[in-house]
Amino acid sequence: MEITWWGHATCTVEDSGVRLLTDPVFARRLAHLRRRRGAPPPARAAVADAVLVSHLHADHLHLPSLARLAAGTKLLVPRDAVRAVPGLRRLARLDVVEVGPGDTEKVGPVTVRVVPALHDGRRMPVGPRRSPALGFVVDGRARTYFAGDTGLFDTMAEEAGPVDVALLPVGGWGPGLGHHHLDATRAAEALRRLAPASAVPVHYGTYWPIGLDAVRPHEFHSPGDEFVRKAAVSAPGVRVHLLDHGESVRPEVRR
């Protein structure tokens, strides 16, 4: 079982011979955002048996990155995504499956369970609020919770259930985070509630608005280290793996 963080919310989860890719974004630039740290992921990052898309924001559902996937790749997207993002119809060679909380999908020997997230899931900057924001629990040799982009909500641990590994967002792509996001403090509290064996912080230190390099730079550079410090207090029994872009880890599992 191995986790690779490619930057932002993009991870490869390898479990039981299955490769799952989360929220793939491979671009150097995305609208007003520029990749400030880490090279774009190599071609091998796009190799996956299935891709998990947490919500419709362009830094999570990125059509040019999805176009790099091999024909036949299973693509799990939030319910009503195809209607909200017509460009998905051009990816007809992919196996696009719309899902919502409570759904499950088999990918070889691995089961992917869809859970809710607390976030605005619509395609921005406009769009009807039809598509839910999602998290995913990958159940194979380990149970891995990919929280997507989410705030802290009361039933998070109950919805995820017992997990071995938590991939938690700890920051964002610009100065200031609303309550529908996790910052380092809220992510540490989420970790306390989830109580996994190990965790990997994601969704920080990759993209930043062009021209704002000097605006609150600590919110770009520090969330990972801050999460490690706060997690040591809130959830001392959890091992936190602070990865560099492109780095992999074989995290601890309990079973």
UniProtKB/TrEMBL annotation:
SMART domains: Lactamase_B. Gene3D superfamilies: Ribonuclease Z/Hydroxyacylglutathione hydrolase-like. It holds the Pfam family Lactamase_B_2. Residues 7-203 form the Metallo-beta-lactamase domain. InterPro entries: Metallo-B-lactamas (IPR001279), RibonucZ/Hydroxyglut_hydro (IPR036866), UPF0173_UPF0282_UlaG_hydrolase (IPR050114). This is MBL fold metallo-hydrolase. It comes from Streptomyces albidoflavus.
